[in-house]
Amino acid sequence: MNVAAGAADVAGATEPAGAADSIGAVVYFSSASGNTTRFVKNCRLDDLGINAYRIPLRANEPALAVREPYVLIVPTYGGGDARKAVPIQVKRFLNDPDNRSWIRGVIASGNTNFGEAYAAAGRIVSAKCQVPLLFTFELMGTAEDVDKTREGLARFFAGANA
Ligand SMILES: Cc1cc2nc3c(=O)[nH]c(=O)nc-3n(C[C@H](O)[C@H](O)[C@H](O)COP(=O)(O)O)c2cc1C
């Protein structure tokens, strides 16, 4: 199992580099098409002191364990089928009660061509995990989406840490 920075807080062991100075974290999933990865990279979270962790794409990769407050960024799949809107990899990650206990908000992406199902994964995760849906964006996001997300995350974690 891949234990992300912040896990050391729980274990009481030496804290990995990056965890001490961070204001929060983003956990994201991105399929082979990589739109969400591009969006997250464009957000330059490192500069804001926000750690970024990617949920593995393939089942044979080590599972991700996160033990610090995070906002989930999730693309929507399923083509309108609500049962498949949240990618299976994200469901698996959130089914771990320890991972789930640290989620503080969700940002969802999608494609408005899917109409009512646009960014449905965000509404589903928000309801299931009882956290706010903070923002939605299309595909890899626009420059404006990136700016809004950077500002929003900085404000969100500043409030959470106040
Ligand atoms: C098979 C498939 C199904 C999709 N279903 C939806 C959907 O139901 N609602 C939506 O808003 N977007 C849907 N999308 C669009 C994706 O959410 C969008 O392309 C996203 O940017 C993919 O992110 P990724 O490249 O990081 O995996 C779908 C895309 C694919 C390929």
Automatic annotation (TrEMBL):
It comes from the Bacteria. GO terms for molecular function: FMN binding. Gene3D superfamilies: 3.40.50.360. InterPro entries: Flavoprotein-like_sf, RNR_Ib_NrdI_bac, RNR_NrdI. Probably involved in ribonucleotide reductase function. PANTHER family: PROTEIN NRDI. Belongs to the NrdI family. This is Protein NrdI. The lineage of its organism: Bacteria, Bacillati, Actinomycetota, Actinomycetes, Bifidobacteriales.
